[in-house]
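Justification of computing resources. Each target in the renewal requires a structure prediction run like the one illustrated here; the chain below, 89 residues long, is used simply to show the kind of job we budget for.
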Amino acid sequence: MSKVAKINIALPAEMAGAVRGAVDSGEYASASEVVCDALRDWDLKRQLETMDVEEVRRLVQEGADSGPGIDGKAALARLRAKYVAMSKG
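Resulting C-alpha cells:
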C-alpha cells in the first residue's frame, strides 16, 4: 500500500458541490476517492498527450490483433447477473 500524504485544496463552489454529490450518491466513499480518481484521469490524459502518432498506431494495432471485440452491454449484463447471484449466496 502506498503512503498517504494529506494536503488541503480549495475548490470553486461548483466543483466542491460535485465532489460532495458524488459521495452523497454513493458513487464514491469519500471526497479523497473522488479527487484520486480525477487525478488518475488527469495523469492518463497527460501521458496520452505525450504519445507520438506511431505509438498510438502501434497500440491500436495491438488491440486489433488481440482478437474480436465483445458486446459491452452483453458483457456487463453477464457480470451483473454473476454478482447478483454471488451476493445471494
